[in-house]
Design a protein that fits this description.
235 residues; alpha/beta; Rossmann fold; Arc Repressor Mutant, subunit A; 2 domains; five-stranded parallel sheet; 8 helices; elongated
Length: 235
């Protein structure tokens, strides 16, 4: 079955340009031009990924992003104007997987779609089961995509999970924002490292009950730190 994309934008020329490039890349494309139409198409078409403009008539893109996240983990790529930095950050906090600022090259959109789908739907034949990762009372199972703090299950968003897995695989090491962008997002964000900070903040919130923390190393990046090692008492 072809991968189905829902492209939402109120500008017909952008819709058609995106459709042309995405269909040329082998994707099935359905479209919507208003907020209410976008939600109707999402429910009826059940797309594999949504390309979502923020500025829409009827219902804005942030509200649509929130609604989609309440229904599941369908990947979302937001389209934003360069002046909408706050909305972009809010969108990431609501669970969007990626964003592209307008104006953009349609080839970049195709590349972003491929990268997001590759992260969220890895090839079944690829790979041997990954080992369970643990630090302190945090246990991450890459195969089942589950995280536990002690005996309690923790629900992470897609990128928060990937970020935690990367930090666990390099536990104790300092990773720069650029390294995290490359390893977790799969490509450069052309200096847009703010997205790492947003997802670190979300991850810290979810791990607040654990004995593990994401430590900021000022001027460099982040590292994952577990509980201090116990030392034996002298007799």
């Amino acid at each position: 079955m072809d991968t189905k994309l829902l492209v939402v934008d109120d500008e017909p020329n952008i819709i058609e340009l995106n459709r042309m490039y995405l269909e040329g890349a082998g994707y099935q494309v359905v479209t919507a031009r208003t907020g209410p139409e976008a939600l109707d198409r999402f429910r009826s078409e059940q797309p594999d990924l949504v390309v979502l403009d923020l500025m829409l008539p009827g219902i804005d893109g942030l509200s649509i992003c929130r609604e989609i996240r309440q229904q599941g983990a369908t990947p979302i790529i937001m389209l934003t104007a360069r002046t909408e930095d706050v909305d972009r950050i809010v969108g990431l906090e609501l669970g969007a997987d990626d964003y592209i600022t307008k104006p953009y090259n349609p080839r970049e959109l195709v590349a972003r779609v491929r990268a997001v789908l590759r992260r969220t739907n890895p090839p079944v034949e690829a790979a041997a089961p990954a080992s369970v990762l643990q630090l302190g009372d945090v246990i991450l199972d890459p195969a089942r995509r589950t995280v536990n703090v002690g005996d309690e299950s923790v629900t992470l968003r897609t990128k928060e999970f990937d970020l935690l897995q990367c930090l666990l695989e390099h536990q104790g090491l300092v990773l720069s924002r650029e390294q995290l962008l490359s390893q977790v997002w799969g490509y450069d964000y052309a200096g847009e490292t703010r997205t790492v900070d947003v997802h670190v903040a979300g991850l810290r919130k979810e791990l607040r009950a654990s004995n593990v923390m994401v430590e900021t190393v000022w001027g460099i990046g982040y590292k994952l730190v577990g509980p201090p090692a116990r030392t034996g008492s002298a007799r």
